[in-house]
Amino acid sequence: MADTLRTRRVARPSPAPLASIDWRSVVKNALASRLLDDIEEATNRDRATVPKEHVVLYQFSSRGHDVAQVILGSLITGRHDGAGAYYRSRPFLLSLGLPLDDAFGSPLGRAGGFSDGRDIGVVCNLPNRDGPMVLPMAGDVGSQYTPAAGWAQSIQYHRDVLGNAEWDGSIGVALGGDASVATSGFWASLTMATTLKLPMLFYIEDNNLGISVSGDMQTPNGNIARNLESFGNLLVRDGDGTDPHASAQLFTECVDHVRRGAGPALVRLTVPRLSSHSGPDNQKGYRTDAEIASDAARDPLPKLRDYLVPALLSEDEWTAIEREVTADVHVALDAARARTIPDPSRVAQFVYADEGADVPDAFGGLTRAERSALGGTDVASRDGDLLRFAEAIRHTLRHELLVNPKLVVFGEDVGKKGGVHLVTEGLQKQFGSGRVFDTSLSEEGIIGRASGMAIAGLMPVAEIQFRKYADPATEQLNNTGTLRWRTANRFAAPMVVRMPGGFGKDVGDPWHSLSDEVRFAHAYGWQVVMPSNSADAVGLLRAAMRSANPTIFFEHRSLLMTGTGSARYPGDDYVLPFGQARMVREGTDVTLVSWGAMVHRCEEAAKQFGDRVELIDLRTIAPWDRSAVLASVRKTGRCLVVHEDNLTAGFGAEIVATIAQEAFWHLDAPVQRLAPRDIPMPYHQVLLDAVLPRVDDIAAQLEALLGV
Ligand SMILES: Cc1ncc(C[n+]2csc(CCOP(=O)(O)OP(=O)(O)O)c2C)c(N)n1
User: Fold this and answer.
1) 421 is catalytic
2) Is the backbone of residue 505 left (phi > 0), alpha (psi -120 to 50) or beta?
3) Which residue owns the Cα nearest ligand 1 atom 22?
4) Which one of 69, 100, 155, 349 has the largest count of C-beta atoms within 10 Å of its C-beta?
5) Separation of 309 CA from ligand 1 center, angstroms?
6) End-to-end CA distance of the chain, in Å?
């Protein structure tokens, strides 16, 4: 096993080392990273003979990328600097303070560290509260960019809106490989950074390989810097990442440019990938021996040595650093191997926030103290004005913007226009474009930005124009939902995503009328709210905006556009806890369960049966009120679930399965579901009526059920 360092020498004249760089730290971090890779790779190679628990399953070497990364890291020192990074970024994290035993321990899947054994070790994070931090990485290539842009936008918010001068000069950074420049996340964040002149640096590490695919497949002619030369508001630099002097000069120039508020910058450096893509990849099918050898000759570590010895360090000093790093790494390796294995009894903890007294606040979202200072009551005022659904939401957003300076409202057209549903009308005028703002047309950008902003301590309230248009944000939505769990509560990104959808007044279509709420109920970590009336919408939206968890807040189009669901405003402090169903009407013989706009159709149908039908409005489907439904079914012995989402695997299936398991012996008839038969929403009213459950359909089904 390779367990000591001895850096090769290449003789070549070098310029004098740049005085602005802390080269000793650069050397230490580069050597530490190299030795970590050596040890992990050797363990993997010798896996037949080394103990199984010493083998790293997802081993990704940074060899070749390491020197340039730690030079960049040496410049990212601000208290509020934040970076989005990826699986090959460990050297950069080491230079920002990642402890060596975490660097070893998490890839080994041990307890503690950056995920408590939940995530693969190269997908890491660094929640520094008093220094530069690294946002939680994700496994999806390109997904690091938009949260990093969100962090950069938060720098402006903390400085300009909250007036916190401490954030002035801070920087957001995003690291990515050459293949990542083909992803939508890269382009979404580049648009955000350049249109908003964000304090953001992109560093593209170009090794001319994805896993096996060459760079000219990712951007024409394989050079993203050249292709971006004419991009507006962007300083672009291109260079050799194996040359420490050139790398340091380019990084220094670009970091200075961003820190002084001149706008974003992008540096592309060519680097060799000196190992296979990952442990299991042997690169034989796509790289010749000659190509591998020619990359090996470009190793930046000997070049770093030649650059610094003897100009800045003597031979002996270099050797002494090698010895010191070797000792430190071995101490850390022993400590990491001695760590316990993760505790399986705690694996469910932190899917949602755990507010236990002994659980610290995660990095991200409002603190517990900030949330509790907002107060709230679950008692509704009875003398409020009668408000339509959209007005009620606007009132609630306005009040929360007033009482919570960290709350931001944004989305496509929500600013000047007030949203295509006019829900945010007038809010930008009242609160300014720092707090209520339009975004570029990228849902991935909207949700990724929200994630970065939430981690920066803000409460983002993002609008997705229509439910269907959340599709491009799926990756960021899923990553937000798992973020607290996969970082074992080191990070969290509470946010509210307002999402109009469902059929409209007399119209539908496959794009604007999707409901499909079950997708979010199925996603990890999200609360899903589907109110049927204005009063509930107020209380649930306020609960969402004061929650430690992310929430999908579904605004039904047929309620936004009509007077259906109008109710008295329940007050500025009204907070309705999630998971509490509403008893719409009590009844004796059948339980009718619904949520959202279908509640109104169910109510019409139920009226036809006097007091025989008990109607329950779930109000939230994650969490959902099992006990209310089960208590009712145990009383009535019959149940019909009505929803607008597809029948197959719709949320009704979950309810019916729960009843079958928990209340089977109380049933007098099979539990029934009424929902569209897996047909997309059509445009013409006649077709729409043929797809959606109508009042008559519900009544007919109730009648049949009561006859059993
Ligand atoms: C969205 C997504 N698609 C595919 C993958 C599988 N994958 C992992 S790494 C990788 C190549 C990325 O190459 P690049 O961005 O150039 O970084 P490098 O590994 O060269 O440092 C691919 C295709 C993934 N992780 N995420």
Assistant:
1) no
2) beta
3) 211
4) 69
5) 36
6) 75
